[in-house]
Amino acid sequence: MPNNVAASMRKGSTVQKVVVPGAKSTKAASKKKDEDEDPGEGWDEWAQGKALIKPPDQLELSEAELKEEITRILTANNPHAPQNIVRYSFKERSYKPTSAVDQMAVHFVLEGSLLHEDSDEARRLRAKEGLPEETATVDTGVEPDEDEPETSDTPVEDGGEVEEAGEEDRPDSVASKTDRKEPKVTNQFNFSERASQTLNNPLRERSCQTEPPPRCTFTATATQWDIYDAYVEELQKQETNKEKQKAVASKKDNDKGKKKTLLMETQTDDITKVGKASKIFERMVNQNSFDDIAQDFKYFEDASDEFRDQEGTLLPLWKFQYDKAKRLSVTALCWNKKYQDLFAVGMGSYDFSKQGRGMLVYYSLKNSAYPEFIYPTPSGVLCLDIHEQHSYLVAVGFYDGCVAVYNNKEDGSEPMYKSTAKTGKHTDPVWQVRWQSDDMDNNHNFCSVSSDGRVVSWTLVKNELVFTDIIRLSLNAAVSEGAEQQPGIACGTSFDFHKQIDYLFLVGTEEGKIHKCSKTYSSHFLETYNAHSMAVDAVKWNHFHPKVFISCSSDWTVKIWEHTINPPMCKL
């Protein structure tokens, strides 16, 4: 047999085989023959084929470099595994990166049907098929030992016998298929199929039986007298029930009154909660819609003013109106010193023959569509003033001679303080009111002037207004020839207190005169200025110069004065 055939047979002996009875003897004989064969010249050729071939571009290393040990650490991490896998976390409601990445890479999978001969499954298979132990032996691919007994002593000389043995040795040969019975190979795992059936919960019926209501049978004979007595008893019961119901009704009325007040309070509380948010929302809408006006208010400049000689133009910005105050005239206006976007407007009528209701209204530049506060008044408002420190207090003078104080912090439209005939109200219209500094007891107070000639100081004490007359204005009439004219009462129209001297103040009259007065001398004037020919509408001390004041009148003149000099310094 040639050497290359023997080598190929040695190489092919590593293939797994299933040993069948009758094939062992031929296999052993062929193996012995292979060992006895001399390789000869063919062996040298096969050995030369395993010689190392050095490529031309291989590096040439020295002995030291060849002996150098290079340590490399092999890890089980897969370099191709993705590192940016994210999964949705239902707990945190967001995508989170996954740190655990599967590093295993499967290159080849083959599900086999071979069983180990010593396994329990192989024994069960042999017992099931009724095969002897030798016929069901499973070869794991390892060559049999050399010490196995030879079944045939006849040497095989030619290649034909070797080929025949090889054909018999192969499990897929026709002879092996006909001679041996293929065993049924089951799964290599110990598989068992199990099933269970759950029990349905038994139905339960619950029922209950109520006891029947008690019954009784009643029979009697009634006469006319029995019927009459029954009616009399029923009438007495009805009368007693009516008396009880009257007593209960009185209690219910009281309870209903209390409940109504509670309901009103709760409703107002709910409205105030929504009202604040709606007010802010309304301001935002108005500021967005009137943004152009706000920009003009800050940065408007008319280019045509360059061509006018000392004349300018007025640009109307906001227009404030209230539907329920359309027929009323604006009689007074005062800005809030603390909140500079807020101002109060007094409304009444200058047509003194047709006097009626009035109104006190607060407007804000942040919302020109609707007033912030509305106070209807029974008489027309002629003047008002807002407290500088306590901006929620406003003093108001009316046409009927009353003065009142309103508090913006309190709910309702009624004033907190109001003068009456018993508390010293004016008998004529009040033309001006002005807050003063607190007194020695830290009580708020303000002053007022009226056409009845009185300048009155009003003090807020607990729940009432306490008045004090500062001065009564008298008119020194000129004496005509042949008759004497009694001096009358001067009608005050305006006043103003000195900015530095608390007791010094000026009073303008309807006759056009200005009186310089003092709180310490209430019987006479310090000085009188023949200022105007008509009523003095306003008089004001200078904020920067303590001796200078200004006055304006209905005679269309404005004059600047120094209180130590009688004639005016300037006339406009």
Automatic annotation (TrEMBL):
Main location as per UniProt:
cytoplasm
Tell me the segments the record calls region Disordered.
Answer: 1-45, 119-215
- Cross-referenced InterPro entries, in alphabetical order? Dynein_IC, WD40/YVTN_repeat-like_dom_sf, WD40_repeat_dom_sf, WD40_rpt
Subcellular localization: Cytoplasm, Cytoskeleton, Cilium axoneme
Comp. bias regions, Acidic residues: 35-44, 142-170
Q: Where are the WD repeats?
A: 529-562
Which GO molecular function terms does the record list? Answer: dynein heavy chain binding; dynein light chain binding
Answer yes or no on keyword Ligase: no
Biological process terms from the Gene Ontology for this record are:
cilium movement; outer dynein arm assembly
Which UniProt keywords are present, listed alphabetically? Cell projection, Cytoplasm, Cytoskeleton, Dynein, Microtubule, Motor protein, Repeat, WD repeat
Give TM segment ranges.
none
Q: Which domain of life is it from?
A: Eukaryota
**GO cellular component term, pick one:** outer dynein arm
Here the segments flagged for biased composition (Basic and acidic residues) are: 119-131
Question: Which PROSITE patterns does this chain map to?
Answer: WD_REPEATS_2
In what ranges is there compositional bias, type Polar residues? 1-16, 185-201
The family note in this entry says: Belongs to the dynein intermediate chain family.
UniProt name for this protein: Dynein intermediate chain 2, ciliary
Q: Which gene carries the instructions for this protein? A: dnai1.2
